[in-house]
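Support request from a user on the community tier.

User writes: "When I paste my structure tokens into the form, the page sometimes reloads and wipes my input. The last time it worked, I copied everything first. Here is what I submitted, just in case something in the input itself triggers the reload:"
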């Protein structure tokens, strides 16, 4: 089968991210990506210049998607504590099990190593915290900065779930965040 002459960067970067998720960032090479997408390794080098830039481009695309999802959820969930839970449960995704979640932690390592990607994470933290803060605006017992506190609780819930993943991650996150909300509102956001 002949090699494709063109393939949009978005598709190429999706394949690069898939390689990193399956085999780890160290497995992403221009040769491996070439085998996956069908473009020649030299074409990929011309597009992305170096492995570092390829990883940065793939992870930047992933951050773009997370930014869009966060905005969609912030626009579609109610501005209530229950809406904050729904927003974070929506961001929890469906990892498909612990192996997939663990693989994504290898990707996070790359985000933490790169100053530009770390800056993306810091910016997203602010956007997410502000969206959660807005959902507690009418709650008298909610302390200043509750958005970052709840986002931190969410990240902790994801981590604790990973040590004992007996239930779907969204269910575990919802239970954890319902308890968090109850601490400030006196009621659970669950059914």
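"...and here is what came back when it finally went through:"
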């Amino acid at each position: 089968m002949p090699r494709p002459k063109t393939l949009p960067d978005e598709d190429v970067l999706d394949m690069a991210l898939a390689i990193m998720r399956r085999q780890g960032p160290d497995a992403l090479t221009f040769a491996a990506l070439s085998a996956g997408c069908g473009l020649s390794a030299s074409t990929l080098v011309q597009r992305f210049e170096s492995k570092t830039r390829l990883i940065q481009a793939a992870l930047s695309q992933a951050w773009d998607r997370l930014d869009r999802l966060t905005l969609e959820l912030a626009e579609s969930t109610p501005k209530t504590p229950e809406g904050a839970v729904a927003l974070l449960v929506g961001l929890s995704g469906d990892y498909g099990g612990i192996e997939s979640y663990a693989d994504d932690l290898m990707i996070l390592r790359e985000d933490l190593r790169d100053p530009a990607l770390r800056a993306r994470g810091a910016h997203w933290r602010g956007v997410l915290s502000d969206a959660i803060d807005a959902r507690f605006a009418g709650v008298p017992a909610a302390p200043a900065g509750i958005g970052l506190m709840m986002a931190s609780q969410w990240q902790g819930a994801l981590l604790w779930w990973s040590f004992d993943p007996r239930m779907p991650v969204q269910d575990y996150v919802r239970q954890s965040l319902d308890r968090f909300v109850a601490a400030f509102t006196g009621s659970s956001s669950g059914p």
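Agent notes: The reload is a front-end session timeout and is unrelated to the input. The chain has two domains: 1-49, 66-185. Residues 51-76 form the longest helix (26 residues). Escalated to web team.
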